[in-house]
Amino acid sequence: MAKKIISVRTVVAVGIGAALVFVLMRFVAIPSGIPNTNLQLAPAILTVFAAIFGPLAGFLIGLVGHTLTDLTWGAPWWSWIIADAVFGLLVGLCWKFYKIEEGEFGVKNAIIFNVIQILANAVAWLAIAPTLDILIYQEPADKVYLQGLVAAGLNSAVILILGTILAFGYSRTKVKAGSLKAE
Fold this sequence. Notes:
Elements: H1 8-27, E1 29-31, E2 38-40, H2 42-53, H3 55-73, H4 78-93, H5 95-98, H6 107-137, H7 141-172
Antiparallel strand pairs: 1-2
Helix pairs in contact: 1-2, 1-3, 2-3, 2-4, 2-7, 3-4, 4-6, 6-7
């Protein structure tokens, strides 16, 4: 029997996560004052889904959710789509450290979660997105690095607040291993 590459649970998570990211990116965005850079709630959803379901889910949710959003605005902006996908991948690579599924997401795990998301935001928005903007679209460096800095800061702040609350809340719905005792 062939081994599954991706579980049904992960496929469902990608579908739901991408849909949520799309809706939040498309309809819940507050302009930051920097062109094409908004305060959004979608990064919190992407981060929590990546932290729960792992790197493949994080990558696909970022890729599909952002692509759908861009397609409804006109054309895909591949540098930012790739950055979102890589962000989801990076956060998802560390999913075992968060212990959200085990119901053990505590203060220590929240600190790890937020250090990793801040580093992943820095990689995605200070390195990948602006560099690809310059290489693919010949955008001016000062403009795209400012956009990346603002995006990294806003995303990190949203995830720090909303993402941490969502991770705590979801973790509390899980039964901790060894918490049930036979009577």
